[in-house]
Amino acid sequence: MLEVTKKLVELLDLSPIGDDHFQGDSEDLGFPNVFGGQVLGQALMAASRTVEGRLCHSLHAYFLRPGNHSMPIDYEVQRVRDGGSFSVRRVIARQDGKEILTGSMSFQVAEEGFEHQLKMPEAPAPESLRSEQEWGKILAPQVPERLRETLTRDRPIEIRPVNPVNPLKPEKRPPHKQSWFRAQGPLPDDPVLHRCLLTYASDFQFLGTSLNPHGLTFMSKGLQVASLDHAIWFHRDFRMDEWLLYDKDSPSASAGRGFNRGNFFNEEGVLVASTTQEALIRQR
Question: Whole-model pTM?
Fold first, then answer.
């Protein structure tokens, strides 16, 4: 495992601080606040620590306040129900006594059933694309010095965008994005860890899908953006140290909010997870 990936795995490895209470550190990715994917991934890990023999099949969460990346986050897990096939957990994330995220996760025993899925859309192979870090190094000389570290830093999740947007000169595009995702280096055979890592990564390049039709990016002046909620459904087993295509679209934007949807496919075309998110996209 690469060192940068090991640090992410350790970030998701929460410390128990009492009955169904856990604490996680925060990381600074160069954003003003804690990265939402970090809080989601840690919340799922906290809930998973209270369930045995069942894996998460769905997660629904609301971001309530911006998180401070200089402070740890406390996670309280509430055991809502343990049934014959499903278990439900509620998770509350807090900093300085204030709730920053609340969510519910459902877990299911392994089960066979009906099978069908959407066909994987066409996309170029990941080996034919540059990574976000490589694009960042190309853009670095054109951005303020304070942003260069964010663009060029080593990343535990390698992202290779299809038809990337130039954040300095965005153009109006259809509300659709594709990226290949993969954790850097081999990972342990722990399905809980792989689900938490996908949850972490699913918040990258998602919100921006709803900005495409408006010719805007995170670097556009006078723009206020923030994730409002996030949901994930895990359909089939997968590995985060193998390439996954993240295919995203945005069916609607209105009232200062953009709605985004996503599907994760492995290289064999198997649909492994789906996501949705509504985000604040507001001109200040």
Answer: 0.95
